[in-house]
Amino acid sequence: MVKNILWDFDGVILDSMQVRDYGFRKIFEEHSHEQVEKLIIYHRTNGGWSRYVKIRYFYEKILGQNISEKEVLVLANKFSDIMREELIKSEHLIADSLKFIENNHMNFNFHIVSGSDENELRFLCEKLKIDSFFISINGSPIAKNKLVFTVLKDFGYKKHETILIGDSINDYEAAEINAIEFYGYNNIKLKEQSKKYIENFNELQLI
Question: Which fold has domain 17-86?
Answer without folding.
Answer: DNA polymerase; domain 1 (1.10.150)
